[in-house]
Write a structure and sequence with these properties.
This protein has about 450 residues and is an alpha/beta fold. It is built from 13 helices and 15 strands. The longest helix is centred in the first third of the chain and has 15 residues.
Length: about 450
């Protein structure tokens, strides 16, 4: 089974799929799955574009909307995580993950699925210490501040992923695990990204939560993006554990003559070539959901060694069996929701934004929560269902500046507007990117442990 891994997508789906088609034709093989490591930009229309945190000059519809509208269809199953340049209101609708278009699947804030029997886990967003221990309080309509904090990793999601006991084959994060630079060609990285030297020397470069999960989960592969450069590394874990070493690879963004794509053979398929629910992960969601907060204040979860309550939520045999029973009754382990459009797609002929936003409860999230007995994080004050919208429930007007008062979970008006730039963000461009945007490069023969990383 062959899997293609792509770095920062930035909405360039047409170019990425064409690159894959060219590689398949040139080599006579078929890729079974595409994985994208963030900055996917699932922008459906101009309203979505307004919620993407980036300078105005980089806001572009690109090509995702064609797949959302049905004008085009992804030629192979595609799984992605969120980064720090996303359509925040779109991904907000799918906190547990789901389909953003036919054949294109989002892993959620944190998630695990199987494909061909391969377990794929991921953590969306990037690390920011200021928001790490908060709840997922951000709700449409987003302010300038909340549309940025919405993509910051939360401790609760890391806590859930940390309960996994069964081996993980592939883990995805947008930003790199902290200290990963010391496990590869550090000098080569500094030649390309010299501005990282101080952070690397101080030990502050990278994500501490990702480093924690790398050491706890010990996946076979770990893929990242964010820094717009290729960087392979091998982390030796030692001792007992599901895997003695993890092969790490960060990839570039989709541009010509850049290493943005890696194709690897993961061996024979061990299950159906479709996105399937992971029994262990669903059991973890069911046992830990009471600690999920949709307010700024988090709900404290038990710490290791707590003798007054359960602190280890790795699933018991009974919890796993309950999930198996649910899936058996349904008659399939395939992901139990179907793609459902929830807003009109971009129309190049009119190209008009409605200027309206509302917390929308996506039918996919409703169906998933109903099947597995989970609370719906999108059921917040002011939220409406798709049926209510289609039935004529008024959509609150929004000017794009101050949020209306019926959404109390947003930051107070005094904190909105003029928010400082997030120091953890990576620019959408750099001095090496002044080239065309065809995105068609030859990804062949890029070994995952190749030391020749120069652009």
């Amino acid at each position: 089974m062959k899997i293609a891994v792509e770095g920062c997508c930035h909405g360039e789906l047409d170019n990425i799929y064409q690159t894959l088609a060219d590689a398949e034709a040139a080599n006579g093989f078929k890729v079974d799955l595409l994985i994208c490591c963030g900055d996917f930009q699932a922008v459906r229309n101009l309203d979505d574009l307004q919620t993407m945190a980036c300078p105005d000059k980089y806001r572009s519809m690109n090509t995702f909307y064609k797949y959302y509208s049905g004008e085009k269809e992804a030629p192979l199953p595609t799984i992605f995580i969120g980064g720090n340049h996303e359509a925040s209101n779109h991904l907000w609708e799918l906190p547990y993950g789901g389909w953003v278009a036919k054949n294109i699947f989002y892993l959620g804030f944190g998630g695990v699925v199987t494909f061909g029997g391969i377990r794929i886990a991921g953590l969306s967003g990037i690390y920011n210490e200021n928001h790490y221990r908060l709840g997922h309080f951000e709700t449409p309509p987003f302010s300038d501040s909340s549309k940025r904090s919405a993509y910051h990793v939360r401790e609760f999601d890391v806590f859930q992923l940390g309960q996994i006991q069964q081996p993980i084959d592939i883990f995805l994060s947008h930003d790199w695990p902290r200290n990963i630079a010391h496990h590869g060609d550090l000098q080569g990285l500094l030649r390309r990204k010299s501005f990282l030297r101080k952070e690397i020397e101080e030990g502050s470069f990278g994500s501490p939560p990702a480093e924690h999960l790398l050491n706890v989960l010990r996946p076979t592969y770990w893929f990242s993006a964010h820094m717009h450069t290729k960087f392979p590394a091998i982390v030796q874990h030692g001792g007992a554990g599901p895997c003695s070493s993890t092969r790490f690879l960060a990839l570039d963004k989709c541009l010509p003559r850049r290493d943005f794509l890696q194709i690897l053979d993961v061996g024979d398929r061990r299950g159906p070539l479709e996105v399937c629910a992971d029994e262990e992960w669903i059991a973890i969601l069911r046992s830990t959901h009471r600690f999920r907060s949709t307010r700024r204040a988090p709900i404290p979860f038990p710490q290791q060694g707590d003798t007054t309550q359960r602190f280890d939520f790795s699933p018991t045999k009974l919890e796993l069996q309950k999930v198996r029973d649910i899936l058996a009754k349904r008659g399939s382990s395939a992901w139990p929701t179907q793609f459902t459009p929830t807003t009109p797609p971009f129309d190049p002929a009119s190209a008009v934004a409605t200027g309206r936003a509302v917390p929308l409860i996506n039918p996919q999230t409703v169906d998933l929560c109903t099947l597995f007995g989970l609370p719906n994080p999108c059921a917040v004050p002011g939220s409406v269902t798709l049926e209510q919208l289609q039935g004529g429930v008024p959509r609150p007007a929004w000017s794009g500046h101050l949020p209306p008062p019926q959404f109390p979970l947003l930051p107070p008006p005094g904190s909105i507007g003029g928010a400082p730039a997030d120091p953890n963000e990576i620019s959408l461009t750099d001095s090496e990117d002044e080239v065309g945007a065809s995105g068609v490069v030859d990804p062949n023969a890029i070994a995952i442990d190749d030391d020749d990383d120069d652009d």
